[in-house]
TrEMBL record:
Domain SAP, residue spans: 9-43
Organism: Nephila pilipes
Pfam families: SAP
Region (Disordered): 44-86
InterPro entries: SAP_dom, SAP_dom_sf
Biased composition (Basic and acidic residues): 44-53, 60-81
Domain of life the protein comes from: Eukaryota
Protein name: SAP domain-containing protein
Amino acid sequence: MADFDIESVSGLRVIELREQLSNRGLLTTALKEELVKRLRDAMESEKTIREVSDESSPEISERIKAVGEKEQAREERKSESEINLNQLLESMRDMNSNLNEMKAGQRE
């Protein structure tokens, strides 16, 4: 999705709001009004952090950068886990299919 600003958050669909909240590690269950508020609050906090980091010491900037890198690594692990789960599911389907074929062969 294209970039958007805090004012345009209310125009997002619920699925988009949930995606944005999930990307930030925030709770994604609620009615749209609450999701909008939650995302706006998160975006305000992010804006404040950016402003502070722009004016802060290099040490704080490095800490903020490290947090961002940890978040990115978490997202990558999440993606890897989803791939592994999909592979496991496919293997289980194959095993189930093979088992059904074996049972059918025994009946004949």
